[in-house]
Amino acid sequence: MGEVVLAVHEVDKHIAKQKIIHSVSMEVREGQVLALCGGNGAGKSTMLRMIVGIAQPTGGTIEVGGLQWKKDRRGYAGSIGYMPDDYLFGHGLSAEETLSFWASLRKVSKMRVDETLRLVGLHDVRSKAVSSFSKGMRQRLLFAQALLSKPRLLVMDEPTNGLDPYWMESFAKLVLMAKREGHAIIFSTHQLQVAEAIADQVVFLKQGRIVEEGTVSVFRERYGDQGLQQAFHRLFGFQADAAGLQEGNSHELF
Ligand SMILES: Nc1ncnc2c1ncn2[C@@H]1O[C@H](COP(=O)(O)OP(=O)(O)OP(=O)(O)O)[C@@H](O)[C@H]1O
């Protein structure tokens, strides 16, 4: 087993006297993918924002590569590639110009920009304006941005939200490629078929608490063939259809 890259220990978060995260602990190792699932308002984005250092826990600790944000902000931030759930790209810039801008901020070489464009399959369209890109292509560019400095940890908030099945599958393959390269990966999703296809570990949050966790095969043992969907039904108690999940969607990605 690879080294632990992300260690979250008994993290709490209060916002305006309300406790929205309750004693959450989890770990992600090198070459592992963790999917954070749960209904709307479960606390997924809040957890990810604390992991990347945009928000701070009220209690508990978060370490990335053994570093804590409070003690070494530069080292901590440098260990993380973050793909936010939405991003407004600069008007008129090409994919290459956009990535080069991010690279200059992070002191990443031109060669790495080129390499990353190839990795995510955008090299052939690198001179095209990002404004002409489909949502799937923009997500690939955001993913490239997160990969630029070869961070130990990749954090992605709803990376396949709004993608059609073709782009969802091709994005899932990119994530698996990053996993093979040894990145530790944590992402949030409402799309349980994506979690089922690429995650080693799945954590369900409900009202800021971990209510169920395990590998995809453990979920199948506990809940049957449609493991994650069934878990979602039991935990959240409403129709999977209402959450955009259709029976039979799982196992179809690959
Ligand atoms: N800045 C804030 N001020 C007040 N409440 C907040 C703030 N940020 C988050 N919350 C509350 O914390 C809870 C968790 O929100 P969060 O956005 O983390 O959930 P989520 O699981 O990402 O939801 P979704 O799937 O809808 O994006 C919600 O009840 C939300 O209203």
From TrEMBL:
Keywords: ATP-binding, Nucleotide-binding, Transport
Positions of the ABC transporter domain: 6-232
Gene Ontology MF terms in the entry: ATP binding; ATP hydrolysis activity
Highest taxon, organism lineage: Bacteria
Pfam families found in the cross-reference section: ABC_tran
Protein's UniProt name: ABC transporter ATP-binding protein
